[in-house]
Amino acid sequence: MADYLSDYIGKYVKRFESGDSGCLTFGQCGNDWGISCGTNQRILRYGIAINFLKKYFGEYEIVQKLYFNNLGDREVSYWLGEQYCSSPDEVKAAWIFCVYAVGKEEFERIEHEDILENYYNVTKKELDGFFDVEKNRAFQEMCFAGSIFNGAVAYANRIKNLLVSYQNDEQFFDLIYDSLYKEYKWERWAKAENCSYIGNSERETLRNLLNSKAIKEGGKMKKVMIDPGHFGSYYNQSPCDSRYYESNFTWDVSNRLKKYLESYGIQADLTRNNKDQDVGLVDRGKMSEGYDLFISMHSNAVGESSVNQKEEIDYPVSYCLVNDQRFQFDEVSREIGQRLATGVKEVLNTKQDGIIYLWTADWDRDGDGQLNDNYLGVLHGARLVGTPAVVLEHSFHTNSATTAKLLQESYVDALAKKDADVIADFLGVYQASTVTMTSFSLCDKTVRVIADSIAMYNDAAMSNKIGELKVGSARRAVQAFGLSDNRKGLRLEDGNYINAIKGVDVFKNNMKESVKRAESPDGVLNVRDFPNSYGSAVLRVLANGNLVRVIGECYNNADHWYLVKIENSTENITGFAAARYLKNA
To answer: What's the structural domain count of the chain?
Structure first.
């Protein structure tokens, strides 16, 4: 987190977890096994506090002595004993030691980065395609706090369960906090009229942020320096069509590339302020200092010796940066260069494939006594400031077919977009999907692939393909949903997503009715109106030994629930109970 003390996700909700004590906050509430620690109140239960210390501060002997035996979960507010884990006093002592060993500011930075990675970002990923966590600052803060309190997946499920009632941002904001207040009755989630002091309410603290822009965190913005090759309006005329000048093309395609990169959230700058400005070649490359990539935009031409073959020569080429070993590519430049050249081939359908090329100077450019410099001045300049660099030739304007395409706005725009897509993918920057969820339900179905293969995705918008399922493959589906582009999807038991329409047979898993007995480690089992431990109402409390009729089952993510029926002279209740606590009678 580059600027932790000025602004960061979680800034406005931090005090509701730790007050003014920050990373030296210790408390006990709920079922935390006797202690909660730090700015984000990591609990002893599940080994959360212990595992955090071991992950980041495992070099200290006091931390190495801590242990968590993972003997099974219990919902209790007291330490279960040394057979389970280190004592609250031992964990607190190790925690305090680590805070002072690295300093409070550094410790809180580590806490924050860990929450972003393992809670907030997990919630955001779970909701991808369903709900835009980063639509405004209030939603960011709300989800940061909720992912800590409920757990990342459980909080995402709380939001999914309420989405069917979404009307507008503020109404939905209140709906989420209403679900928390109804369940816990804490002022933290109350409306103003239910607070003894409005400052006690996280809800009211965040309400004014509903109209504030979300902030970006978790990494520096990527930066690309674009060099429109040459300058002016009449440089390098095509022998195939007198209307074509390379300098016009490079200025046009570079400005379009800038626009497309910016749509990805990438900072894109030009080496020239206007079309007619002439900047030295080495200076252009050096302008990329501190950038992630330098790219110089061009079209190519055959030499005098090949003029008779100009109609046959038709391929994109990336001239790539030379590293400190003569006749070797800089590896980053080589990889992005090949991807860019291949992309140009796809757009222009050139006769030959795109290639990469190393062009070294036969003299010592930088005066270090070594003949290991780039022939092209812009690449030499980029090398001097340590920036990966490529000169991209969008095939040859000495080929009549390619020249005709380079004169068409549609092709120029397509080239710019393709270049941007390749660069963004290489830099690991992806545009947020505009597809939203329009329907959502739980299910228990089997999916069998009948096509040769179907795509599998790791996001609900089904935009990020991670693999394929082959013909004959069978998977269990636990959620069904519809998207705003009319696609239907299924979430599989492993957390991945597939299209529910194309190439699959889907059939319901029907279970026979049975009678089961409640058997919970706490002696009681809640029957709820929705299969989720958070955000659902308790319809009935079963004591251990109580019998219920099981009439169905479903999955909420990977959590298994039974649909139970309780029917007698005074009751007629149908609800959901956690399957792991119902045993055969």
So the answer is: 4
Worst-scoring range by mean pLDDT, 166-180, 445-459, 520-534? 520-534
Cβ proximity of 142 and 176 under 8 Å: yes
H helix intervals, 313-392:
331-348, 377-384
Q: Are residue 491 and residue 551 in the same domain, yes or no?
A: no
pLDDT at 344: 96
- Spatial CA neighbour of 399 closest among 297, 307, 304: 307
Nearest to 201 by CA among 64, 13, 8: 13
Would residue 5 count as lying in a domain?
no
Q: Is the pLDDT of residue 568 over 70?
A: yes
Asked whether residue 273 falls in the same domain as residue 321, the answer is yes
Q: Which of 384, 318, 297, 314 is nearest to 348 (CA)?
A: 314
Rg of the chain, C-alpha, whole Å:
30
Same-domain status, 530 and 479:
no
Distance CA(515)–CA(524), nearest Å, equals 17
Whether 354 and 256 have beta carbons less than 8 Å apart is answered as no
The answer as to whether 218 is a domain residue is: no
* 41 and 128, same domain (yes or no): yes
Give the confidence band of 326 by pLDDT, cuts at 50, 70, 90: very low
Domain containing 575 equals 514-584
